[in-house]
Amino acid sequence: MPKLKKGWSDKGKNRSLEDIGGAISFNIWQISGQGVLDLENEGFQTETHSQRLDVISEFAAYLIQIVDRMLFEDFELKDRNDLITATGLHLARVMQDNRIEANGEGDYTRAFLQLLNQRIGEYSACQFDLDDGASFVFLRILGDHVTEVMGERDAKWITGYIIDIVGPQMFKSIMRLLPGLLDPAQKIAANREGPDRAKNYD
């Protein structure tokens, strides 16, 4: 398992939402990469580094949605949106660097952000529970997208493995890490002035 960031070494230092988003994105990237390794260890082989990044993109989009759902009870809509936006932009920069290494020079940020926005639309209607995680339909969408980018060879088995093993494990991983990273964000949200903001999930 890759090294994950569970909290802040200097707990007295003020953290911006961008700082917190960067820490969340670091963990999402690590967990997503581990998800690819788990697939490969089960015999679901990727052919290229570019294909691995395709799978990581799907896992990252799923995890961003999980994080957003986990923020729902404790953060106002604007604070949630600011934090999720910071997380997504950090991930896009990491993806850009990795895509250049895998595919050569190009603007890969736009395509990654478009993917995140597409998945927000797909996952938004799916149920989520803080104790049990993503619903079957939520996980099925993830599994189908991963299957699509993995190719036809093991297509009949990948979705089931994502639903039963990988998706729930990634939820457990981010669930363990998020509270220690969010404490500064909760302080920022508590100190913000202005009218009450709706908590409706968009």
Describe the structure in your own words.
This protein is mainly alpha-helical and 202 residues long. It has one domain (17-181). The protein has 6 helices and 2 strands, in the order ααααββαα. The chain has helices at 17-41, 49-71, 77-103, 109-123, 136-150, 155-191; strands spanning 128-129, 133-134. It has a two-stranded antiparallel ribbon. α2 (49-71) packs across α6. The longest helix is centred in the last third of the chain and has 37 residues, at 155-191. The model is unreliable at 193-202 (pLDDT under 50).
Work out the helicity level: over 70%
What is the makeup of the main sheet?
2 strands, antiparallel
C-alpha geometry: globular
Low-confidence stretches: 193-202
Mean pLDDT: 85
Tell me the strand order in the biggest sheet. 1-2
Order of helices and strands: HHHHEEHH
Would you spell out the secondary-structure blueprint of this structure?
Blueprint: H1 17-41, H2 49-71, H3 77-103, H4 109-123, E1 128-129, E2 133-134, H5 136-150, H6 155-191
Antiparallel strand pairs: 1-2
Helix pairs in contact: 1-2, 1-3, 1-6, 2-3, 2-4, 2-5, 2-6, 3-4, 5-6
Label this structure with key terms.
202 residues; mainly alpha; two-stranded antiparallel ribbon; 6 helices; 70% helix; globular; disordered C terminus
Short structural description:
The protein is mainly alpha-helical. The chain contains 6 helices and 2 strands, in the order ααααββαα. Strands 1-2 form a two-stranded antiparallel sheet.
